[in-house]
């Protein structure tokens, strides 16, 4: 049982998303289920989530906007962030799932789903997610903390490659074509990034198609990390080749 006021607010949310979503976030709405949205955030360059796809389901409770929306992360069994739990739970002040100051909490008159998505992108899927863990925040900027953060980023990057494999093998409903197009356009960048790390580039120095701002005095990636990359590259390559064959087969039958 929902009210006209609730439906109008959801339609307002749709309009806000339509006008203001950045190029790295995509959302699907469902006219027959106004209480649901499905969103995907593309991992940003320079982060351990670069070029990955991260899917979230959003539900509007009947009390919305008096209470925040509920958000579920499609984790695929992988712990890729201290604030994204293995059961899909998203830990964020704006959602009321983590403590925060008044300005960081949900405010019915001002807060919206766009802010939630932008917060997940900026605060969770960031360059140094290691420090999202409250007990580690005080070590940010210290030599010990930065070393731990780098090692954590290497682990997360490998898990992010696994999420790519998971997304290609089991694309979420209504996003199959999006997943296919995304990885066809990003496959080269992903492989270039992996090969650069294997060749001695330090983590996080890469942006689309090459290396920029490379500090040659910085520490290269760890041997364990670089040694693990070939297997992950083969894993993605096999899935990508399978997809390419299916696409080419489909084109063949359409032409003849």
From TrEMBL:
Residue stretches in coiled coil: none
Superkingdom of source: Eukaryota
Family matches, as CDD domains: UBCc_UBE2O (cd23837)
PANTHER family the UniProt entry points to: (E3-INDEPENDENT) E2 UBIQUITIN-CONJUGATING ENZYME (PTHR46116), UBIQUITIN-CONJUGATING ENZYME E2 25-RELATED (PTHR46116:SF41)
The protein, known as: E2 ubiquitin-conjugating enzyme
Keyword ATP-binding (UniProt): yes
Annotated source species: Linum tenue
Enzyme class: transferase
Its EC number(s): 2.3.2.23
Keywords tagged on the record: ATP-binding, Nucleotide-binding, Transferase, Ubl conjugation pathway
Residue intervals of the UBC core domain: 5-165
Single Gene Ontology MF annotation: ATP binding
UniProt xrefs under Pfam families: UQ_con
């Amino acid at each position: 049982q929902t009210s006209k006021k609730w439906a109008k607010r959801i339609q307002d949310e749709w309009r806000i998303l339509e006008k203001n979503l950045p190029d790295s976030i995509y959302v699907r709405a469902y006219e027959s289920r106004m209480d649901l949205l499905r969103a995907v955030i593309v991992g940003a360059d320079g982060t351990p989530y670069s070029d990955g796809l991260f899917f979230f389901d959003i539900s509007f409770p009947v009390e919305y906007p008096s209470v925040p929306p509920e958000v579920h992360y499609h984790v695929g069994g992988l712990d890729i962030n201290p604030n994204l739990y293995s059961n899909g739970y998203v830990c964020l002040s704006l959602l009321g799932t983590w403590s925060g100051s008044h300005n960081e909490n949900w405010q019915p008159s001002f807060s919206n789903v766009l802010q939630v998505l932008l917060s997940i992108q900026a605060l969770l899927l960031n360059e140094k997610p290691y420090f999202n863990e409250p007990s580690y925040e005080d070590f940010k900027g210290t030599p010990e903390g930065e070393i731990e953060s780098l090692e954590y980023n290497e682990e997360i990057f490998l898990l992010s490659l696994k999420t790519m494999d998971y997304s290609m093998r089991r694309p979420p409903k209504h996003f199959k074509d999006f997943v296919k197009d995304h990885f066809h356009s990003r496959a080269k960048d992903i492989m270039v990034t992996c090969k650069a790390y294997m060749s001695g580039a330090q983590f996080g120095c890469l942006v689309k198609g090459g290396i920029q701002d490379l500090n040659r005095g910085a520490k290269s990636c760890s041997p364990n990390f670089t040694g693990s990359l070939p297997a992950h590259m083969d894993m993605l390559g096999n899935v990508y080749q399978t997809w390419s064959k299916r696409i080419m087969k489909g084109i063949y039958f359409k032409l003849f």
